[in-house]
Inverse folding.
């Protein structure tokens, strides 16, 4: 499967494109991030890119890294919304964390309700509960349960 426009909308809304590298909000340092939440060894303090590069980096990582990994992890056929939500979560928490998560285990056991609730567990950065992560997880959960990208974003915005 491929990430739909709904999944990309949720990723872009919560990542918010920044064309100059910035430190992780939870740690105040590594990992450094640029564009649509892109991290990697080439992202260093002071690095700047343009919008086309940011868009290209996101598209490349989705196609080369996240979509194949999610397709490999799932042991049952996800709906488009489930796939999009898993890509969005994996993009934020990292594929190794998603692979070993209770969420993925429950999804693969066809406990979709339990899996949906597990999105809300991933709300910390640097050990601190972050409002932005609580909002993002509510949006990912809504996407997983079948909401459109706009409705999922609205669900995330409603979290206070």
């Amino acid at each position: 499967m491929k990430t739909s426009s709904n999944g990309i909308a949720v990723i872009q809304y919560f990542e918010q494109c920044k064309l100059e590298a910035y430190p992780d909000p939870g740690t105040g340092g590594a990992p450094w991030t640029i564009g649509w939440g892109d991290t990697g060894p080439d992202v260093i303090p002071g690095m700047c890119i343009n919008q086309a590069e940011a868009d290209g980096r996101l598209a490349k990582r989705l196609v080369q890294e996240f979509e194949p990994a999610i397709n490999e992890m799932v042991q049952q056929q996800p709906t488009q919304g489930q796939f999009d939500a898993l890509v969005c979560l994996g993009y934020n928490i990292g594929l190794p964390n998603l692979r070993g998560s209770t969420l993925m285990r429950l999804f693969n056991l066809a406990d979709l309700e339990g899996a949906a609730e597990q999105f809300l567990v991933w709300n910390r950065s640097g050990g601190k509960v972050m409002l932005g992560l609580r909002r993002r997880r509510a949006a990912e959960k809504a996407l997983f349960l079948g909401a459109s990208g706009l409705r999922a974003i609205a669900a995330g915005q409603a979290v206070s």
Q: What stands out?
A: The mean pLDDT is 96.
